[in-house]
Amino acid sequence: MKVAFLSAKSYEESFFLEEIKRHSYKLELEFFEHRLSPQTAPLVLDYSVICIFVHDDASRETIEVLRRGKTRVIALRCAGFNNVDLRAAEEAGIQVCNVPAYSPNAVAEHTVGMMLTLNRKFHRSYWRVREGNFSLDGLMGFDMAGKTIGIIGTGKIGSAVARILLGMQCTVLAVDPVPSEECRKMGVEYVTLEHLLQRSDVITLHCPLTPETYHLINAERIAMMKDGAMLINTSRGAVVDTKALIQALKRRKFCAVGLDVYEEEEKYFYEDLSDKVIEDDLLARLLTFPNVLITAHQAFFTREALENIARTTLANIVSYMQTGVCTNLIRSERYKTQPVKR
Ligand code: NAI
């Protein structure tokens, strides 16, 4: 079976090729650096499987092009599927599958790493000491132990974050329409969103991007937060209204903000643009704040996660080959509203 692997990066190819070799899978993988979009879809019409990542565009418009060719499966090699129009895929007879949990720990550890970096200012002291400046002025942080952390979304990643923070003696509050019994047993207290925003010293986002969570963190909700709170977003960029965030940063609302994701990241993240001008004024403004740390959607990026991504993605495809149904099939009727692109 022919698989077109889009948005391919050299660091992931070897994980896929090794996994194919290990199982002697009868799959022909071809790697393409370009992203899937309505413009590039005609190039992959000859492939039964289109393997995509977070920035590929599998909107209705793209799927309308793909349905003219041989595509039977869109295999996401990530967890989030807000970039796929599930209903359009279903109408075109294309199955969509994902990797539901490749390493919740990778994302959780990166999240807590961002909190600690921003709190204890490792990023600033690293440069300072290298330049022979051993002063501590401006580097004061706070004990995490005893602080209240609010987790929005306690699925696989959110509960892994809770486990780490409870181990650091934090009080953990959470909001989730489907509370986790496991989290409750660990000592997580479920509260209303308003209560979480008002009481938390650090707020961290781990819900998916859906029409309900689009701009969940907006001006009104930021106003409910404690002055001097820290906000971390490793979920999806559009869960936060960036314009409202920048206004709040200018008013010194936050002690710090950590972002692994950004609303318009597709144009920038995963590319080396170091000799280019950043034309996105919101991203450029965010980069000027000394208390904002941005990483380029790298929270998932560990060896273990890449091994799991390769193993699960290929098993999903092979299951389609053998049974006609992918494992980890995403059914559109399970999601009463269509996820949003971004
Ligand atoms: P999951 O499906 O296990 O958990 C998501 C949780 O959010 C569920 O418990 C759900 O009930 C909850 N939720 C849904 N709507 C909510 C709302 N309005 N308010 C509060 N909670 C809500 O997903 P998982 O694996 O924990 O991943 C979470 C998100 O993290 C993904 O959707 C993806 O966007 C993001 N992600 C980011 C990565 C990165 O590298 N930065 C890597 C992997 C995932």
Please tally the β strands and state the result: 12
Radius of gyration: 21 Å
- What's the order of the H and E elements? EHEEHEHEHHEHEHEHEHEHEHEH
Summing up helix and strand content along with how strands pair, one would put the structural category as: alpha/beta
- In percent, how helical is the residue content? 25-40%
* Sheet with the most strands: spatial strand order: 8-7-6-9-10-11-12
- CATH fold naming of the largest domain: Rossmann fold
CATH architecture classification of the largest domain = 3-Layer(aba) Sandwich
CATH class of the largest domain: Alpha Beta
Q: In this structure, how is the largest beta sheet organized?
A: 7 strands, parallel
Low-confidence stretches: none
User: Helix count?
Assistant: 12
Tell me what portion of residues adopts beta-strand conformation.
5-15%
Shape: globular
Termini gap: 30 Å
Task: Give a list of the ligands.
Answer: 1,4-dihydronicotinamide adenine dinucleotide
The total domain count is: 2
Would you tell me the overall average pLDDT?
96
The H-level CATH homologous superfamily of the largest domain, spelled out, is: NAD(P)-binding Rossmann-like Domain
The quaternary state of the protein chains shown equals: single chain
